[in-house]
Design a protein that fits this description.
- Helix 1 runs parallel beside helix 3 and helix 1 runs antiparallel to helix 6.
- This protein is an alpha+beta fold and 203 residues long.
- Strand 1, helix 1 and strand 2 form a beta-alpha-beta unit.
- It folds into 2 domains: 73 residues, 3-Layer(aba) Sandwich (Glutaredoxin); 105 residues, Glutathione S-transferase Yfyf (Class Pi), Chain A, domain 2 (Up-down Bundle), CATH 1.20.1050.
- It is globular and about 45 Å long.
- 49% of the residues lie in helices and 7% in strands.
- The chain has a 4-stranded mixed sheet with strand order 2-1-3-4, with helices on one face.
Amino acid sequence: MPTLYDNPLSRNGYKVRLLASHLGLPLHVVTKDLKAGESRQPDFLAKNTAGKVPVLELEDGTCLPESNAIVLYMAEGTPLLPTAPLERAQVLRWMFFEQSQILPNIGLARMLKITGRDTQRPDVYAQRLEVAQDSLAALERHFGSHDWAALGRLTAADIVLYAYASVAEEAGIDTSPYPSVVAWRKRVEALPAHVKPDWGFAA
């Protein structure tokens, strides 16, 4: 069984666990205490030189860091990641958008907010918040006429977009201007295989 090194606060790790649930893939989840510096210890740096979670360790010992790389690997050969070039590109388009627009803005704004550093670095927080709102506006325009990110059905694109779009409020963002995004989030949450962010961790 593959091992996922993760932390409950990591929405990047949540992407992997949410995908695993949709695919019915078993994972052994190992919690890394980031505050205690466990991801910076030599044994973990040997698995990911960047010292970040998540990291997927395969049964043969091969380690794969970076959440979207893990998602692509796990989704390969499943309906969540098509093989036809144009269809695949449509899924990848939104996965790239998540990495360039959603993660670094909603993600950082959320981290600043929940750690209380939004008041210590108000200029950084405000800038990230502004770009995050622009990114949500782009999603709003898309989901205003599409039920899903790509291909008219759930794909890996929805999995990765949902991870941070679902916690926009935790970043201090008012989501009332984005009703189509909120409706899409509810569609994702209504799927039978949907799991909450703490899924996979030992009780």
